[in-house]
Write the structure tokens for this entry.
Amino acid sequence: MPLRLHPAPRGRTIAGRARRRRADPKEPPHAVPPAALPVIQPVAPPITRPLPLPARRALPAGAAGVSRLLRQGSKVLHEVSSIGYGGALAACLVINLVADRASLPAFAAARAAYAAITQWVLLPSMAVVVVSGLVSLAATRGYIDAGWAWLKAALGISVFQASLVVVGSGRQQGEVMAAAAGGDAATLERLLRAETNTIAILIALSVANVVLAVWRPKFTKRAAAAR
């Protein structure tokens, strides 16, 4: 019995696929029905939350009151003593500039006032400024990491050391009065000029301390990392 070959359905042979592609050029050679494609679900990114910072331990009521009293009291003493120190420096500068060198009694009275101001106003005020500033630095938590506060403390200590030079010059009345009594104008001018220059340097350092307290530049590691 002879075998009969049935023709392949149209489109299933290679020639049929070629004819279909020519009829529809947009159809890809091996098109996959959309239903057979896998569905890819979007994956949401993981939610990252910052770790909670450890809570600061609250101070007891008594300790908090003492700390607050130290902060406020040290600030008040610091401001008041700074006013006294600046006034003493201005008074000493004026005395050195306007003292009558031609009249020995008037010059002696001016030097006595100079010595009294440096001994009873200038040096105690500067001592209170330094001590109250250090106490305020230790009692205020925000000042510990502030670079400007430590720079201000270092400048305050240097100003205190320079103030001792002014006090010492005020106590050395013998050399100044000997030059005034002997008519040695060159030596007298040299001594008074040295005192005036020291006072001018102290005034400049005091102004720098005030600028630091108002400006408060960022000298901390956190600020450097942020930049």
In short: The mean pLDDT is 77.
